[in-house]
Amino acid sequence: MILFENGIIKLEYDPATDILVIDYPDLHGYQISEIKHSVDILADNVRNYDVKKVLLDSTKTVVTVTPEESKEIAVYMARALAKTRVKKLARLESLNSTVKARAKENIQHIQKAIALPFALQNFTEKTDALNWLQD
User: What angle do CA 12, 58, 106 make, to 5 degrees?
Assistant: First the structure.
């Protein structure tokens, strides 16, 4: 079921598997405040539905922000999800090598800056990510 959808993110939840699938937003500088607001909505839905498993799909994400802005958004999302009861977060990597490299840097920064209370793993295939979440 779709819990929320706007021009930035889409949250689709399957209560049978307790997996929330998020289409990671395109990152454009003029949308940073809207993206953060959407992350707040994401965190509220994760809390309200007591979601434990999240699949973050960034395969189609377009990034036009600076590396610093990208890192800021990634940290904002990590901090928001760290305040929930999420146990596992699977991330589907972008098909774009530049976006993929930036995401890897952001994840390394997050893991150094924040003690994440959930497991985080990157995947290239959705089926692998879903299998890992269901284990």
Answer: 125
Residues 6+ apart with CB under 8 A from 69: 27, 29, 32
Instruction: Compute the distance between CA of residue 131 and CA of residue 4 in angstroms, rounded to an integer.
Output: 24
Each residue's pLDDT tens digit, 71-84: 999 999 999 999 99
Task: Give the pTM.
Answer: 0.91
Q: What is the mean pLDDT of residues 5-28?
A: 92
Please tell me the distance from the alpha carbon of residue 135 to that of residue 128, in angstroms, as a whole number: 11
Strands 19-23 and 53-57: parallel
Lowest-pLDDT range of 41-50, 74-83, 92-101? 92-101
Distances (CA, A) of 68 to 25, 32, 117: 16, 12, 24
